[in-house]
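Dear V.,

Thank you for sending over the compound details. I've combined the ligand you provided, zinc ion, with the protein sequence from our construct and run the structure prediction for the complex. I'm sharing the raw inputs here so there's no ambiguity about protonation or stereochemistry in the SMILES, which I know was a concern on your side last time.
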Amino acid sequence: MEQTTSQRNVYLSPGLILSGVGGRYTIELDNIRADAPLHGQTVVCRAKGAFRHDCITPLPGDRVTISYSDASFRRQGDTILPDPDGTDIRIEKIHPRYNELIRPPMANLDMLFITLAAAAPAPLLPMVDKLLCIAEHNRIEPVVIIGKRDLQPAYADELLAIYQNAGFAAFGVSAQTGEGVDALRAYIASQTPSADNKRKIAAFAGASGVGKSTLMNLLFPSLSQETGSVSEKTERGRHTTRQVTIFPAQRLHLTDGSFGGFYIADTPGFSLLDLERFDFFEKDDLPLTMREFRPYLGQCRYTDCTHTKEQDCAIVIALQQGKIAPCRHESFLIMYNELKDKRPWNKPQRKF
Ligand SMILES: Nc1nc2c(ncn2[C@@H]2O[C@H](COP(=O)(O)OP(=O)(O)OP(=O)(O)O)[C@@H](O)[C@H]2O)c(=O)[nH]1
Ligand SMILES: [Mg+2]
Ligand SMILES: [Zn+2]
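Below is the predicted structure of the protein with zinc ion bound, written out as structure tokens.
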């Protein structure tokens, strides 16, 4: 759309928020409108003030419409260069979200690579399982990645079996030795764009230090030069990711060629404290988010069965028969206890 206001052309372009820091958003504009000068470009800009007023925070993954004018770019021969400060560019509209998470703070996720380490840091399985349940509840396809296999191979394989038996796609990998990385890359490459042909948005998520950034750099060698800009050195000299950054598909080249099926985000690791602030849902929704519980639901003796300890509970029987892993049921109990007195759940309001 093009309008003229005081002799300036004003343009509207759709795009995707790749990252946002301190109210400044990096947006990849769709490459569809040849008449909108910045189409296909990546711009940095702010959001219109009304969002803050309404307590709406634009998130990485948001589909947005931005407005800009002729003052927002300059032409150099055939090349158009967007204003690096984006002073005349702003987010006008956030399109309806398919889903929205607090950790990692992202919208419209299709897939979550839930990453844990076999050791260093030792995995907190209740946290992993909580993340899996949140993904299921938000209709995000979870994939479990057990990293640092080199440190504890036997334990890594044990965890792999638990998550594969529960019905998840799961991979054991080591960035140190490279084992399992090819299989994971092949899996990612096999994921085709969703039915409406939009590229899927995926993110790596998990505790801090499990190796998310290292693994992403190994999977997508073209990223490795860039991660320095999104991670910072901690007091202990370690690099840690400070913000969600979605990498546009055209930069995600696999070693053997180009790959455009995904946008993939690196995200800051969770801490124990973050666990408290995770997204959650109602107690009654919990059993449905446990993938391997589903075949047994509706088969318990009591219709209001909590699946914690009742007589003739189909879940407890499956647990006793070894069909459900004890650690998964333990995580279920922890989440159940957390949710049982928490009702109704008030989603925290996010501010800029
Ligand atoms: N032994 C071993 N160490 C690894 C492996 N992958 C990563 N590391 C090390 O683990 C540390 C943390 O790796 P990162 O990739 O920064 O972890 P992260 O999950 O991105 O951490 P945050 O950004 O803080 O969330 C680094 O010192 C890596 O060298 C692995 O497969 N094996
Ligand atoms: Mg990182
Ligand atoms: Zn039951």
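A first observation: The pocket of magnesium ion (ligand 2) is lined by residues 212-213, 231, 240-241, 266 (CB under 6 Å).

Warm regards,
I. M.
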